[in-house]
Specification:
single chain, five-stranded antiparallel beta sheet, 11 helices, globular
Length: 388
């Protein structure tokens, strides 16, 4: 091969290499390593879109200890009647491990049990809540597993409401991040899990006492907004947390992690450094069918834009569904809200944007004036009177 051919080959190879290295996928792969962590499995996930920023063995099913109580608390909050007092089930509270301090005959509320689960990680609170919601623990476990399927937790099985080791009990880090995302959408859950301590009332008779949160991250970094700790000998140290910075929220899950506090903070610093705004391209030239007016269709549009986060330079790709009625009926003024753009990812719905009419829909068949009908009745009455 002569010198000119070798030179051309070298230049061509250099161009291909530069083009590959400049692509977003190259940098995404290069940055995917992230910080070193001690966890056997972990994930860092965008709470809004479900986009994975970092993962290590994230699909591997493992015991997850008391982070289980995220699901138990969520179902309890969703069951309603949170402030109605009732006596705890005396058998349910006879359980080993961490406790909120329940005793036989205590009067509690579901809200107090939720606080007792999320802050001091009470196994007694979890069992008492399961019986209060479902009547007994086996039926509550069915509820837990049914809800897991609804959320998309495909590598999860609940065999304990508290997270104590039980046959088959476990979940993947990715599934636990999905669960945390769902739970944080519940305002009452989000309000409780971010508190370093709370005052609750229970007992016989009830009296006020302060429960402290086992999640030390809440006092280590002001941007942490929850969620739940866990530990058993089989599961090791488990931690599900959430962090909000610059209007973005990341969820971090570590399973069997000896250095979980520091690992979560390092992962958050790493993750947020990769964030970029990304404006989603919404459908345009949308129209809605019309009837009874001066046109067969009306143009519609979304006033708002949708800005998401592109992590590591990779933008999310939401699926957008247009929801409009079969027909718009005249008269309808310009600017009327008539539909919705629904944006979804694999993790579920992430946003709804209202659709408005961009033009008037004028009625071509004016309604008869009310007095015409009144005159008709008057004439009918006169005719009947004359006939008589």
């Amino acid at each position: 091969m002569n010198r000119s051919v070798r030179l051309c080959t070298l230049l061509l190879g250099l161009c291909i290499l530069l083009n590959f290295c400049s692509s977003p996928s190259f940098f995404a792969h290069a940055e995917a390593a992230g910080p070193e962590v001690s966890a056997k499995a972990c994930i860092l996930m965008d709470a809004q879109t479900g986009q994975v920023v970092y993962a290590l063995n994230a699909e591997e099913k493992r015991p997850m200890a008391s982070t289980t109580k995220i699901m138990t608390t969520l179902l309890t909050l969703e069951s309603g009647g949170l402030d109605t007092p009732f006596p705890v089930d005396s058998q349910a509270i006879q359980v080993e491990g961490s406790s909120m301090g329940l005793q036989t005959g205590d009067i509690v509320t579901k809200r107090a049990l939720c606080i007792g689960m999320l802050l001091p990680s009470g196994n007694d609170a979890a069992n008492a809540a399961a019986v209060a919601v479902a009547g007994d623990i086996p039926r509550f476990l069915d509820m837990m597993n049914d809800r897991a399927k609804q959320i998309g937790m495909t590598r999860t099985y609940f065999a304990s409401p508290s997270g104590l080791d039980a046959e088959g009990h476990g979940a993947s880090a990715h599934d636990m991040a999905r669960l945390a995302r769902e739970a944080l959408r519940n305002p009452e859950f989000a309000e409780i899990c971010c508190q370093p301590s709370m005052t609750v009332s229970f007992g016989n008779p009830p009296y006020a006492r302060t429960l402290k949160n086992t999640n030390k991250l809440l006092t280590m970094d002001s941007s942490i907004i929850g969620v739940k700790t866990g530990f058993t000998d089989a599961a090791g140290r488990c931690l599900v947390s959430a962090c909000r910075r610059d209007d973005r929220t990341l969820i971090c899950v570590t399973l069997f992690d000896r250095n979980d506090w520091n690992d979560h903070l390092a992962l958050y610093d790493y993750g947020f450094s990769l964030a970029q705004d990304y404006t989603v391209q919404l459908p345009h030239d949308l129209t809605a069918a019309a009837e009874g007016g001066d046109r067969l269709s009306v143009p519609v549009y979304a006033k708002d834009s949708l800005t998401l986060t592109a992590w590591r330079g990779i933008p999310p790709q939401p699926q957008i569904t247009v929801l409009l009625p079969p027909f718009l009926t005249a008269p309808l003024p310009k600017g009327s809200q008539v539909g919705m753009l629904v944006c979804r990812t694999d993790c579920g719905e992430i946003a709804r944007l209202p659709l408005y009419t961009a033009a008037d829909l004028v009625c071509t068949d004016p309604e008869p004036e009310p007095f015409h009908l009144l005159e008709w009745f008057k004439r009918l009455f006169r005719a009947d009177k004359n006939a008589a």
